[in-house]
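Re: weekly structure request thread

Next one in the queue (248 aa):
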Amino acid sequence: MAGMALLGVRMVLDTFKQALDKVKGVQVKSYGQLCSIARALDVVGDRWTLLIVRELLIGGALRFGEVQRGLPGIATNLLTQRLRDLETNGVVAREPAPGIPGTPTYRLTERGRALDGVLRELLKWGAPTVPEAPSDAIFQMHWLSQPARFLLADHRPDEPPIVIRFGTFDDGFDLTAAGTIAVNPCQRDVSPLARVAGPGPVLVALLQGAMPLPAAIAHGVDVTGDAATLTRVLPAPQASTNVPGQYI
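Done, posted below.
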């Protein structure tokens, strides 16, 4: 009897192993629906995926470590898998890094860059929740570059172009006002008229128009150079921190 019981256990284990091997062989998860929303989520609906797209939209072509640095908390093997899936689906292209043999860079394809509009709508939708973020929420300055593209405007377009630097080369961006607003990673050959640093929640309130510049400075924002330069691009202060309508 004991032998038969042992045989039965082995059969169950073998069946389980075969089923597990089949699951491991499935590389693409799908909702299996004939719906463009479901089909899009098949590609970008996994956790971390759209944040990877965010990093590549901000930074352009990035090495693996540079992508990972902008995603605190992601496991190395998970990032590897997400990049592989995005490459398979034509969202990301992997190319050799210039001057660094054996080291790839990752960049968005044309189809990947088309997700810019999707992230813009997520910015609008998520803006009212930002003031309610936990006090220990992580902040990186370069993340602010995307809201800055839509929240700020050149209020004196007839004046010569200016560059304002937020943060540093390690974590920041250059904002150019030249009739329109453009943001780019910090450029070493550019001399900004002003440099801005400070706590994330205060900077978000400043860019949303929820806090005037003098109050932001009183709450820890540091501006070196020509502080008046900021008035050229900042929105007029609003009565509330929830101003998603500014993302027009």
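The two ends are 75 Å apart (CA to CA). The chain is about 40% helix and 15% strand.
Next request, please.
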